[in-house]
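**Protein record**
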Amino acid sequence: MITSLLLCTALSGPKWFGPVTVSHQLATVGNPFSPNENDVRVVFTHAGHRYERLAYYGHGQWHAVLSAPEGGVFTTQFVVNGKPDSHSAGRVNLKPATDSEFVLKTGTRFKLSSGKPYIPYGYNLAWQYGGAASYATQLADMHKAGLTWTRIWSNKWDGKGPFIPQDSRVKLKEGWMNEPAFDRWDGIVRECEKDDLKFQFVLFHHGLFSTTTDPNWGENPWNVTNGGFLADPTDFFINPKAKKLTKAWLRYAIARWGHSTSIMAWELFNEVQWVDAAKLHPDRVGDVIAWHKEMGAYMRSLDPYHHLVTSSSSEELTPKVFETMDYMQPHIYPSNIYTAILGFPPTPDKPSFFGEFGIHDVTVTEKLAKRGLRDGFWAGLLSGQAGPSQYWYWDEAYKFHLHEEFARGSRILSRCGFAENPTANPAPIEVMGAAKSDWVGQPGLGWGTTQKFVFNLPAEGVAGTLRGLSSYIQSGKSHNRNLMREPIRFRFSLGKPGTAVVRISQVAKWGGSVEISLNGKMVATKSWPAGTGDQNVDATFPIPVSAGKNEIKIDDQGVDWVKLQSITLPGLGSGVMAASLRSDRYALMRIQWLAGIGSSTKSISLPNQPDGTYQMRQFNIETGAEKDSKVQIQSGRITPYHPFAPDEGVALFRVRT
């Protein structure tokens, strides 16, 4: 029996003790990494308390680790294949822990085992680039910036893969594991603990079982062409030997690092939608669903510390793949980060946040990167996710001096009240007093299936977000035509003539075309030939439009997709973009004055917000400066309201009377 610790401690949040490691050289036979051949455990006992922990093999010895809510001297006993080893009895002293905070879920948010709210905020550190700062340096710099989260992969190319050594000349016997990788993981876990960072431990990545997307199948030792046992990467999810070896790796990870409070969650797969079994064979998705259910249950049955279990990403797969996961981890690389994430609905019955986002199809500058961070931060909060969205491009943290930006975000997060108001939800907001401007709309989805084909604008483009529309205008002739079953139509009415603009920002490697019609008449066409890769373009199509009702239709009858960056409609914009997250005693808003603040009188309306006195805290999102004041809300209207910055965050805290 592997005794649970959290069940009895989560509510009271006691002081924890440990970890402590016990080691012994045992006379085991066969593969030490196979629990079928060598099921080794250690029993720890103290004052009527008994804990059983999985043991792991490393450097010629067996080891087991214990953390517990009781301290003091424990007796220890190794058990091999169900039989106590009489030569391994010992004693260890469990001392007070320096960190006793495991991450748990609570509704659609997270909390620590002490009961304090936990808001994940950081960026990915999936692997270490050659010549880049060490993990120790990068994690320490994240800590200095006030970040709380990161995400790290098991992979070959920087020496963290369990089955594929970084040095291709080193060959492992089937079922044996890569010990140097585990030593590297020891250092990473230790640094995360020191820097008070929680991380997602990514156990598998899609490339290992893909022949098309970031493919590493050709170097996978389980591939029959490399002397392995899998004839096709799709069989990974059903092959008995593959499952056996997978479970050996999952068990090993729990045995060696499961005690660590730095692990927020075990992430079974990075972007499993790209494996051949999901991308190329829709009929095999059921295997992927069953695999996630089986492996998630297996990890939970072994992990006495009840770490969360997740997987990614949920962009295009049926939600059934992730229904047994503890929280959702979508990834997104849209044309407009803010509108796409803001338009993404949170999961109603479990936490969710974007584990990856980024700027994907343009040349990134420091200005663009910082704006992207702000957009991902605020859209994650205001869309009702469990925290800000997490940036993917960790190499840009140093290149573009982003730690200063992250530090500003961390301070705002600690001061804006988001963590203390878990029941707040997205709610309507109206901001008056801005000059009229053109309306700019951008697709609300990245790569995925378009769900809405007709948009009545600007009403169905809330905050500039075309919800249900993929950025990728799929060709009716391509193999992806099922992702966009018909052309896209934008309907709008103008008070006077003007010029609409359609902008295309990228074209598929195989080429594509755009055909634009106005009120049933073709007004613009352009085709792009095939290239050596996906092609970044900046193609704008001005379209003169008359007063009255209009319809613009966009279609693609080329070889493959084109990417819609935006559509601009003359005179239909309000000059301000605003979104809010609210409860009866709290509101959080972002207000962007698109044409500048100006001198006109401004006002904010929050329909159905309770009347009363509120403490108002305004944040200059660009600089991090703050301003506090008292305001009144009557019939939903805030008075007085004076903008603090062209791009500002506003938090309202109702004063108790």
Summary: The longest helix spans residues 240-257.
